[in-house]
TrEMBL record:
Domain N-acetyltransferase span(s) in chain numbering: 4-154
Naturally occurring in which organism (per UniProt): Tahibacter soli
Recorded superkingdom: Bacteria
Pfam families reported for this sequence: Acetyltransf_1
Protein name stated in the entry: GNAT family N-acetyltransferase
Lineage, broadest ranks: Bacteria, Pseudomonadati, Pseudomonadota, Gammaproteobacteria, Lysobacterales
Length: 154
């Protein structure tokens, strides 16, 4: 097994990030995303740094995983929660430490930048991911999530 390197995503990674997001949506929710909308959404992160940033995991110079960090202000804590979103690891790289490397990278950055903590959401049925997050020291929150949508989506 070769080393995993983590780096900041750039606009050159947009095609990989679009493919990763589309694959993740299909695998986890059986949703087919509109790739044009998705490409604009990924590019929008690079257009406005306040939206967040992507990290890329590479093995042997090839992208094998990614995640997106977005921010949520907490008035209670006077700081930002960093939300881990759009997590994807290529099938051939799974169970090989890719997500763990991404997580440790982001955790270090969050601590160094004064974040109040890391959060993410996971499908209730995705027990494998839940076990992975627990092994990394994350704790299950006691909240349910609700939404109201203002754009068309499934």
């Amino acid at each position: 097994m070769t080393d995993i390197t983590i780096r900041a995503a750039t606009r050159d990674d947009i095609a990989f990030l679009v493919d990763a997001n589309a694959s993740m949506a299909w695998e986890t929710e059986r949703k087919t995303l509109d790739r044009d909308v998705l490409a604009r959404g990924v590019a929008a992160v690079f257009d406005e740094p306040r939206r967040g940033f992507y990290r890329i995991a590479e093995r042997d110079g090839a992208a094998v995983g990614c995640l997106l960090i977005t921010f949520e202000w907490s008035d209670w804590r006077n700081g930002d929660w960093w939300w881990i979103q759009s997590v994807y690891v290529s099938p051939t790289a799974r169970r090989g430490g890719v997500f763990g490397a991404l997580y440790r990278d982001v955790e270090g950055q969050a601590r160094a930048n004064g974040a109040v903590g890391l959060r993410l959401y996971v499908e209730w049925e995705n027990e494998r991911a839940q076990r992975t997050y627990a092994v990394l020291g994350m704790q299950q929150e006691h909240y349910h999530m609700y939404r109201t949508g203002f754009v068309a989506f499934d």
